[in-house]
Amino acid sequence: MTRCVAPFGLVVGALLCLSASAGPAAARTEGELTGTLKKVDNTAAVTIGYRESSIPFSFLTEAKRPVGYAIDICLEIVDDIARELGRSDLTIKYQPVTSENRFAAVSSGEVDLECGSTTANLERRSHFDFSPIDYISATKLLVRRGSQIRSYRDLGGRKVAVTAGTTNADAMRALFAQLKMSAELVEGHDHADSFQMVKDGRADALALDDILLYGLIAGAGREGADYHVLSENLSYEPYGIMFRKNDPAFAAVVTGTFNRLAQSREIRWIYEKWFIKRLPNGQRLNIPMSEQLLGLFQMMGLPD
């Protein structure tokens, strides 16, 4: 398969529901294809939706090339789609998406795989399908070092940045309502925009998934040392690759890719590439795989 880049234009139960074995199959005739596989076969292309600042899952390098942990997994899925269709001529198109428009992009067929940092919660699963879980995160708070905010309980009367369309925004609204707290939410267009609000004083804290906060700090280079992440977990965020619902043949290919990557240990190598080794800017996250995530991958066949 040729990888051509076009212009940029809970946990265990959910996993078991999606973990039916599926591997490369004999190419089907066009009449037997349905859903996304038929679309890909007709267009000879797979469109990947990527995020511009979801380090280390999906982000742009200085050369404006989409890279990351989720992108690498999606490229493996595309390889298996090509094998399923018996084709070597599929191209890959990259389409930027945001927290707000990613759902419409998947529903409309604008993108086939949303490869970012999307939480696969029950509400979203009622409208979309997801791969097996590829990461487990939690909402936390980022503040400037020296800030008087040492806990979410210190947010009264403060401004908290969130990215529009995220579960973090929902979690903070629910928290403020529960505590009857008068904190104000200010929304950024994307994660970089939300972080910028804290940098320039428009917000006192940033509420986002912990791994994305660490990614923003790493992406900020030396300036990142001015910020730190508070320890409190304010929500539970299991990530997955998102795609259109009610497409069992396509879902089987996606799940089969995860099984293959686990059984061959490649999922561990991909993880270490983005969470342990140096990022494109030379920084390291140094975040080992959690026991919870390791257990999920072992259920898919990852050797001990």
Note down, in words, how this protein is organized:
By secondary structure, the protein is α/β, with parallel strands linked by helices. It folds into two domains: 11-136 and 238-299, D-Maltodextrin-Binding Protein, domain 2; 139-229, 3-Layer(aba) Sandwich (D-Maltodextrin-Binding Protein, domain 2). Helix content is 37%, strand content 19%. The chain contains eleven helices and 15 strands. The strands form five sheets. The chain has a five-stranded mixed β-sheet with strand order 11-10-12-9-13, with helices on both faces. Strand 10 (159-163), helix 6 (167-179) and strand 11 form a beta-alpha-beta unit. Helix 3 crosses helix 9 (248-263). It is globular. The two termini are 32 Å apart. Mean pLDDT is 91; it is low at 2-27.
**Order of adjacent strands in the largest pleated sheet:** 11-10-12-9-13
Q: Please tell me what the overall shape is.
A: globular
Report the CATH C-level class of the largest domain: Alpha Beta
What would you give as the CATH superfamily of the largest domain? Answer: Periplasmic binding protein-like II
Query: How many distinct domains?
Result: 2
What distance separates the N and C termini?
32 Å
Q: Uncertain regions: pLDDT < 50 for 5+ in a row?
A: 2-27
Structural class: alpha/beta
Helix percent band: 25-40%
Number of DSSP helices? 11
Strand content: 15-25%
- Rg, Cα atoms, Å: 19 Å
Q: What CATH architecture label of the largest domain applies? A: 3-Layer(aba) Sandwich
The sequence of SSEs as H and E is HHEEEEHEHEHEEEEHEHEHEEEHHH
CATH topology of the largest domain: D-Maltodextrin-Binding Protein, domain 2
Question: What's the rounded overall pLDDT mean?
Answer: 91
